[in-house]
Amino acid sequence: MAQGLNLPSAAGREWLRGEARTLRRPLAHSAASTALQTVVAVAQAWLLAGILDAALFRHAALAALWPQWLGLIGLAPVRWWLGQHARRVADGAGLALAVRVRKQLLARAQSLGPLGLRGLASGAAITRLVDGVDALLPYAARYLPQATAAVTVPLLLALFVFPADWISGLALLLTAPLIPVFMVLVGGAAERASRERLAQLTRLGAAFMDALGGLVTLRQLGAAERVADRLERDGEGYRKVTLQVLRIAFLSALVLEFFAAVSIAIVAVLIGFRLLWHEVAFRQGLFILLLAPEFYLPLRALGALRHARMDALAAAAPLAALAEAPVSAASPQGGQGVPPVTAPVARLESVGFAHAGRAGVLEGCSLEIAPCCITALVGASGAGKSTLLDLLLGFATPRSGRVSVDGIDLVDLDLAQWRARIAWLPQQPHVFEGSVRDNLLLVRPAADASAVARAARITGLDTVIARLPQGWDTPLGEHGVGLSGGELQRLALARVWLREGARVLLLDEPTAHLDAVNAAVVERAIRAWASTRAVLVVVHRLETACAADQVAVLEAGRIVEQGPPRELADRGGAFARLLQADQTCAAG
After folding, report:
1. Beta strands of 442-489 (E only): which ranges?
2. pLDDT of residue 38
């Protein structure tokens, strides 16, 4: 799933159409209110035409027309309330669609897991989940109700106009298509510009988030100014694309207003001549002339809202791609519970796995993680060690073979329960904005002070706390700004220790960024943990592997050796070669 989680526009259009079908009931409710509002407008036009006809041609006193005046004034609040009610219902439908789609996409992102979202830049994901979903709101709340009104209101008005004068009704029906025809002609360019604008916004968001996350590196490399200049150019490009969309929108609105005015003028001239020729009565002619703007108004409003449809279509393709992306992880719920044992046995049995569009990472890989035992996983970079951890965590399912816990396939287990039994330390642990205490209590909010202090002492975090200006309450910036790499590692290790109920430890480079003294402290803590837990440690430092109970060597996607480190070293195989290479490098 690369940055290009993209589907053809036809797929996005179909997905958007499917989402719109869920709004049939509220949109039908809104359309009914609009239809009633139209009927009230017809009644007002008829009353006003009657009042003017009686006053101008029949010389009736205005006081004698009080029933018509009362009806005309009394219908005004009814018409206003119906319009507001239709708008509220449509707004509620649009908001419900945006909330539901955002929940679905967040759930899909959670189901995809880190592997499924690995190719999607964080800025692109944020843009899709925020701006992309926000683009659906005016489409559902404004465009869809207006599209319905553009069909129903003119037809409903025609039912009242034709009995009054069929020639004027025919003129209305013949001139009405001018507006949608030119709306379609202008719409093609608007749709292309909207797609380009959203694509530019996605690229800009991804670039900005990447630059923000790597600001320290950019400063060190002296590249911050160049990246800032590139962001400025990208921002200027986005501004130009946005102005192009607005220019097309204003142009289309001008064209639609022009043809609507021309159509009303045609009807007005036609009625004027027919009044001169005494072919239509004044009241009927004025009634039709009052309804003519109402006849074209929904079509003009639809044209003005066409940009909302274009924005929604532009956003639909990436949203549909995320919503329909294949999930390779196991289901987080619905399976059977994890066996209630102290430390379950986890196994990979002839597992094969490949990332989408790439060669296989694991092929026929078998490994057993025994309880009360430290298993060290070693291998060259790119051998598949992190992928193996992802499979154990349920972030992905194997292409072949299976991952089992005490003989039960992981896909049949309740994944949430299984993860609750795991303490995981990734290569790059994430630290959230907040205090040191907040970050440590993230895994166990109800932990008492003694448990927190013990976790800090075992992992060496207490020495870090002692140096901080506010101790436990020292605020940390996003991504742990304020702590060194080794200090962040100790904080993450303390979180692992504090995780209640964890019986399987998956540690990816736990001694990374630590000096020899603190690494020894962590290794002693891992040894203490292993007395009641199953521990799998991914290591690059072979002295850590030599201190483990078991060593598994991963090469070319397979476990080529597994056993006690001393036996493997004496065997002269893959592990012995790694030891020899490590000693050579150390001597050099």
Report:
1. 475-476
2. 92
Segments of 370-441 assigned E as strands: 373-378, 400-405, 408-409, 422-425, 434-435
Does the pLDDT at position 243 exceed 90? no
Cβ contact 549:368 at 8 Å: no
Three-state SS annotation for 213-258: HCHHHHHHHCCHHHHHHHHHHHHHHHHHHHHHHHHHHHHHHHHHHH
What are the backbone dihedrals phi and psi of residue 359, each rounded to the nearest 5 degrees, phi first?
A: -65, 160
Residues 229 and 220: their CA atoms lie apart, in Å, by: 17
pLDDT at 8 over 50: no
| Residue (of 335, 332, 337, 361) closest to 348 by Cα position | 361
Highest mean pLDDT range out of 83-97, 287-301, 421-435, 533-547? 83-97
In the chain, list all ranges with CATH 1.20.1560.10: 9-323
Full-model pTM: 0.62
- % of the chain with per-residue pLDDT over 70: 85
Spelled out in words, what is the top-level CATH class assigned to the domain 9-323? mainly alpha
Nearest CA to 367 out of 506, 511, 566 is that of: 506
Nearest CA-CA partner of 402 in 369, 364, 370: 364
Higher pLDDT, 44 or 206: 44
* Residue range(s) of every CATH 3.40.50.300 domain in the chain: 432-500
CATH topology of domain 432-500: Rossmann fold (3.40.50)
Q: Is the pLDDT of residue 352 over 70?
A: yes
| Residue 1, CA atoms < 13 Å, CB-side half-sphere | 24
Residue pair 109/1 in contact (Cβ under 8 Å)? The answer is no
What Cα–Cα distance (Å) separates residue 462 from each residue in 56, 264, 529? 95, 81, 19
